[in-house]
Amino acid sequence: MGFSNGPKPLVWSSNTCNDRQKLISFTVHCVFLESSKLESVSFLNFTTKDEDGTMALTLAVDEDYGYVVVVGVLSMLFSYGLGANVFFARKRFGIKYPIMYSDTNNQFNCMQRVHANYLEMFPTFLVLLFCGGLAHPFYCAIAGFVYLLGRLVYSIGYSTGDPDKRLFGLFGYFGLVFLLYSTIELALRLLRWI
Fold first, then answer.
1. Is 42 helix (H, G, I), strand (E, B) or coil?
2. Which residue spans traverse the membrane (predicted)?
3. So what's the pLDDT on residue 64?
4. pLDDT tens across 3-23, in order?
5. In the prediction, which pLDDT does 142 show?
6. Which residues contact 191 (CB under 8 A, 6 or more apart)?
7. What is residue 54's DSSP assignment?
8. From CA 31, how far away is CA 13, in angstroms rounded?
9. How far apart are CA 137 and CA 121, in angstroms?
10. CB 61 within 8 A of CB 45
11. What would you report as the CA-atom Rg of the chain, rounded to the nearest whole angstrom?
12. Whole-angstrom Cα distance, residue 174 to residue 194?
């Protein structure tokens, strides 16, 4: 199959056997479609085949979704970095496990809070990134990266021990708001309300 220079979405399809057989088989087929065939592929398509009673689900994903995956991996690595920062701060300030916060060292407390706050928002960010990325993959990857940059500035400011300096990173929430918008748009498109 030849490829043109246009977008080439990745298509996953899964098939399940009918209830009479009480057997479920799951297969995943990954193929790239030619741009000329895009008109025949809907974003999410459920079809029932009468001849053998199987039901198929086809999900077409734009190749730009790879950027979304890269941002997701970067967010995980960023989390590890924040955890390492707390680990080394424990060594530097002599704060032993399992003590979560120090009674005397505000800078350590701020560093611990940076990591904890990131972990509190991490599931929300990933859901919005990966779901919204189905609707607008390239723009959601950019929005996710903006969110991570905001978290980095937030982390640097907060880790100084002065909580007011964390506010410089609030611009990252613009990225999160765009991810929320894209996820809501995805839901509305799947429900065929728009």
1. coil
2. 65-88, 125-150, 170-191
3. 92
4. 344 444 445 444 444 443 333
5. 98
6. none
7. E
8. 10
9. 21
10. no
11. 22
12. 24
Contacts of 131 (CB under 8 A, 6+ apart): 182, 183, 186, 187
Contacts with 15 (C-beta within 8 Å, 6 or more apart), sequence order? 25, 26, 27, 54, 55, 56
Of 33-42, 68-77, 100-109, 113-122, which gets the smallest average pLDDT?
A: 33-42
**Long-range contacts from 36-40, C-beta under 8 angstroms, 24+ separation:** 36/4, 38/6, 38/7, 38/9
* pLDDT digit string, tens, across residues 137-166: 999 999 999 999 999 999 999 999 999 999
Please, what is the angle between helix 106-135 and helix 172-190, to 10°?
Answer: 30
pLDDT on residue 71: 98
pTM to 2 decimal places = 0.74
Please state, in angstroms and rounded to a whole number, the distance separating the CA atoms of residues 116 and 120: 6
Contacts of 142 (CB under 8 A, 6+ apart): 175
